[in-house]
Recover the amino acids of this structure.
């Protein structure tokens, strides 16, 4: 100890200055490294359905996997660069709306009358603000207009021509309904019509959704769909119904659903999951599983993705497959299709 003090005493003023500078540099870098990297995470789905490995060619699987990976990549960079959970929800869903692979935006299913009618919704967990549109025929990216309804109107849900008028006033350029049409969906409608049945088709589903936790600790959810193949009479499903197909609350979690919408509406599906977490203290995964159990019991099919503020996630479904994936700030990432 004595030697240490003697050595210190012998240091010149220059030495002391150097040591101080080094000390300050070390302190500042260690401070930088000690900064907690805030968690973020994002989960996506591209719909459920009757999918089995035999009926889906490896090429098709690769196509879906590639788009899902691209969607996760974009969501990851939005959140890594300080974007909000709502930015991530909007950007990721837009990619799936633009892809003809999914039943949302381009490539959406046809109604009985051979047109495309789209539904979408978003919800913010911090404020409980929400926006949705239903039955729109000329909006390229319904998820963007759902967000505009939340942020720029005093309403939650706008339908049909009213929603289109609002979109125009907000500066969105309308598209012809033919923009959404794809051969695959037309064929599947024709098959259904020929068989004269209204349900059970291989591409009945294909709705898209995203739930995200951002680095500010907030969560959000969004869902976009063409609804059910061969739908009639201006039918609207669960996707634009807050508390059915979409729900977000910072206290519990954020959820986006896909499946037979009538069951989801009757169950108040996503709001019920939130209640299970709030009142029964279930985890996100437990609550989603429990709600899927209720769905199965009622005879419905579908799936749900969920996330909470800690970055716990869920991807539950009772069908043979659900296009899905997640990415987390710790680098974990997964894309899957089958059970
Ligand atoms: N839930 C959507 C609806 O019923 C359809 C789906 O998710 O496939 O409109």
């Amino acid at each position: 100890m004595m030697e240490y003090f003697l050595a210190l005493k012998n240091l010149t003023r220059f030495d002391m200055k150097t040591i101080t500078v080094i000390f300050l540099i070390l302190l500042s870098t260690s401070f930088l490294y000690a900064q907690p990297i805030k968690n973020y995470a994002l989960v996506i789905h591209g719909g459920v359905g009757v999918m089995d490995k035999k009926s889906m060619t490896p090429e098709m699987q690769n196509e879906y996997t590639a788009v899902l990976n691209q969607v996760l990549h974009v969501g990851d960079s939005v959140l890594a660069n300080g974007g909000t959970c709502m930015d991530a929800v909007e950007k990721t869903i837009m990619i799936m709306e633009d892809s003809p692979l999914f039943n949302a935006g381009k490539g959406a299913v046809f109604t009985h009358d051979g047109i495309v009618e789209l539904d979408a919704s978003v919800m913010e967990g911090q404020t409980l603000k929400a926006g949705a549109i239903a039955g729109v025929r000329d909006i390229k990216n319904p998820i963007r207009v759902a967000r505009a309804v939340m942020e720029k109107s005093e309403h939650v849900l706008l339908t049909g021509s009213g929603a289109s008028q609002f979109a125009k006033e907000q500066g969105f350029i309308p598209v012809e309904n033919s923009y959404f049409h794809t051969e695959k969906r037309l064929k599947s409608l024709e098959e259904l019509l020929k068989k004269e049945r209204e349900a059970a088709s291989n591409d009945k589903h294909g709705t898209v959704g995203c739930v995200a936790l951002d680095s500010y600790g907030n969560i959000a959810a969004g869902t976009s769909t063409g609804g059910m193949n061969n739908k009639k009479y201006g039918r609207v499903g669960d996707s634009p119904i807050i508390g059915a197909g979409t729900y977000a609350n910072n206290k519990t979690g954020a959820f986006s659903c896909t499946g037979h919408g009538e069951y989801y509406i009757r169950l108040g599906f996503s709001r019920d999951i939130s209640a299970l977490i709030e009142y029964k203290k279930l985890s996100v995964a437990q609550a989603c599983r429990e709600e899927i159990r209720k769905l199965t019991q009622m005879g419905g099919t579908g799936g749900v993705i969920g996330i909470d503020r800690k970055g716990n996630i869920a991807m539950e479904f009772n069908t043979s497959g659900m296009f899905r994936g997640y990415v987390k700030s710790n680098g974990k990432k997964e894309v899957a299709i089958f059970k």
Residues 1-35 form one domain. The chain has two domains: 1-35, 41-338. Residues 47, 103, 205-207, 225, 227-228, 237-239, 245, 258-261 surround aspartic acid (CB under 6 Å).
